[in-house]
From TrEMBL, chains A, B, C, D:
<dbReference type="InterPro" id="IPR005268">
    <property type="entry name" value="CHP00725"/>
</dbReference>
<protein>
    <recommendedName>
        <fullName>TIGR00725 family protein</fullName>
    </recommendedName>
</protein>
<dbReference type="Pfam" id="PF18306">
    <property type="entry name" value="LDcluster4"/>
</dbReference>
<dbReference type="GO" id="GO:0005829">
    <property type="term" value="C:cytosol"/>
</dbReference>
<dbReference type="InterPro" id="IPR052341">
    <property type="entry name" value="LOG_family_nucleotidases"/>
</dbReference>
<dbReference type="InterPro" id="IPR041164">
    <property type="entry name" value="LDcluster4"/>
</dbReference>
Length: 163, 163, 163, 163
């Protein structure tokens, strides 16, 4: 089955939390494993949504232990790697949904694109090239349902599931 | 819930595979999440055992993608970190059960002890200090059932589950 | 002594290469250790500049061996970590100079800011928040000499050298 | 030029420190870059020896900053990776000299052998297989001079220097 990461800031707006929760719930409802950073904000909201739908959600933690981890995780993976764990979240994902913006979130978006993993965005920061044009790659969605639809379509292109 | 890693060589004897399968099945039967390296040999046997018991088993892969991963994994995490992923397997575990010996397996045992994670061994390599005495730390079990019992007792001491 | 990373794409314009070479030379001429990703483009140009000035330049490689590494490195560190090595380059730096833009470069910029490391930019991509305003943090320089001056001033604030 | 890692416990005997210092000095005197973990004990002694000989010595630190790093390092690389940095030390080395024993040191020895890097030992722990025979791979040296000679011969076989 597919694995989709939901990335976003550890402190977020209520609107971002609601969007992340919807994304987590919709993904888990489709049987998709949800990956996230395992802490608060967008990460916790995605985990809560996935759990509501009875799905499997994995938190890849930067710390050496479970301190601060969301209680909605099926599996908490303390890595002790600090921010290097951002690489793991997107490496293990068939697609990444980004909700909101922060430096850590931007690093995940950039690492995903660097590695060829599809990225769908719901709001958040924008990236322009030296001429002021949007850098191609990330695909903006209008809402959680569209984000999930686009993420699964991209995952299917990247790694078709066998029947 | 606890998470216990089962570590061992990617090529193993039938006896080691049977032991690893028993360990995986017994752990998952207790509701414990099983962690492993995600490939063949002892790793695949532990994953198969966990799946038989209907449990959750996570494979932390050294490669950038799922190539060569066991099909019994609930979650496959390609890390692209090479052998540095050995650190992650034992860091995320409340206890480690080692089945058999290899250089990679020894690195996991040593990293677990370095970080204070309890280690239970079923056969495998032995470590002597400069005076020829066994280095204290790893605890030898007589069989899979005892290994699981010792691992859960050690995990309980290391991280008591709240009622 | 300080350590400053020079980050930029593995394929770059002649102007970017010239700027990176100037930055490497000016840093090494001040006795600063230069860190980079160790391969081509901006990385190789920074290494060449540092070597011209007789300095120490460390290449933190993504690969498992030295294949493709610049021949101007004082020390080549194959990590086998893939893109997770981007974290190491900026973590070990007192300041980061970014020359040009790419997804890998953006991940380094974002990881540096996430960890509080000062970032000076020479051209490259721009980052806007959801309202279209530049995200504060990175400081744009007009040329290599100003980039080096700003980087060393930022490094001094971040980690004052003892007399 | 070659790069050789010197690995050993952060707390060591005076004899181990003297041996590590000799190894560092002899390596640096041959123009070899010395790699180590960058902290105390065997690591600090190897760094001091390399510095005495006017060589380049790189400390690959587990921490996020330079706290506790030896003052004899040419380059200090804070990785923030915790014990995962052990992988980096041996991955970047053409050969590894092990002085003394500890769990961290054993992990480095095992990771080096897992990756095919030659290992020379000066004292330290011994590894026996299930039948009680020494596991082949590590080569014991009688003293620092022999350790350096064996390490460079092994490095030459692994990665011949171009004339």
């Amino acid at each position: 089955m597919w694995q989709v990461a939901v990335c976003g800031p550890g402190e977020c707006t209520p609107q971002e939390a609601e969007a992340a929760r919807d994304v987590g719930r919709l993904l888990a409802g489709r049987g998709v494993v949800v990956l996230c950073g395992g802490y608060g904000g967008v990460m916790a909201a995605a985990a809560a949504g996935a759990r509501e739908a009875g799905g499997v959600v994995v938190g890849v933690l930067s710390g050496r232990d479970r301190a601060g981890a969301s209680s909605d995780l099926t599996v908490a993976l303390p890595t002790g790697l600090g921010e290097a764990r951002n690489v793991l979240i997107v490496r293990a994902a068939d697609a990444v949904v980004v909700v909101g913006g922060s430096w850590g979130t931007l690093s995940e978006l950039a690492l995903a694109r660097r590695g060829g993993t599809p990225v769908i965005t719901l709001g958040g920061w924008r990236i322009l090239d030296a001429e002021g044009r949007p850098v191609p790659g990330p695909v903006a969605a209008a809402g959680p349902a569209e984000a999930v639809r686009l993420a699964l379509a991209a995952a299917e292109r990247a790694r078709p599931l066998r029947p």
